[in-house]
Amino acid sequence: MVSIKLLKKDNYLAMIKNSLNSRAYSDIFITNNNHKKNITKNGSLSCAYFVSSILKIFNLIDDLHLTVAGTISELKSKNYQSITKNKILPGDIIVWSEKNKHEHIGFYIGNSQAISNSSKLKKIKKHHYTFNKQRVIEKIFRPKL
């Protein structure tokens, strides 16, 4: 008998990396007083949706989130381990300091690189994990894989 086992961590890391240049997380629509609205502004505000979507697919959280605060709240309620910068590993979730009144969240992928939604390019991009020292890492969470 053949024994097959899904490799959760490997698949999780592959999905994060394979999201590069994706616009799949760019649009979330709601109706407000019967007016349709794209609340992620065509990809400008999609970082939390991107991160929570990956976490939800792997049953690491219960709900999708459209805000960084909502995502962080669930990570804390699930007792995610808080990690220091010197112990960061691929797949860890990074929360960066606020810029232009917006928080930011993404994934560490190794070699001082991260993947997150680019509000400027409106798609998932790879970048230095401190944005070349332009943003401070406020928190790092380790998923339970």
From TrEMBL:
Q: Which UniProt keywords apply?
A: Hydrolase, Protease, Thiol protease
Q: Look up the coiled coil feature and give its residue ranges.
A: none
What positions does the domain NlpC/P60 occupy? Answer: 74-135
Keyword tRNA-binding assigned = no
Which GO molecular-function terms appear in the entry?
cysteine-type peptidase activity
What the entry lists under Pfam families is as follows:
NLPC_P60
GO BP annotations of the record are:
proteolysis
Q: Which family does it belong to?
A: Belongs to the peptidase C40 family.
Q: What is the name of the protein in this document? A: NlpC/P60 domain-containing protein
From which lineage does this chain's organism come? Answer: Bacteria, Candidatus Buchananiibacteriota
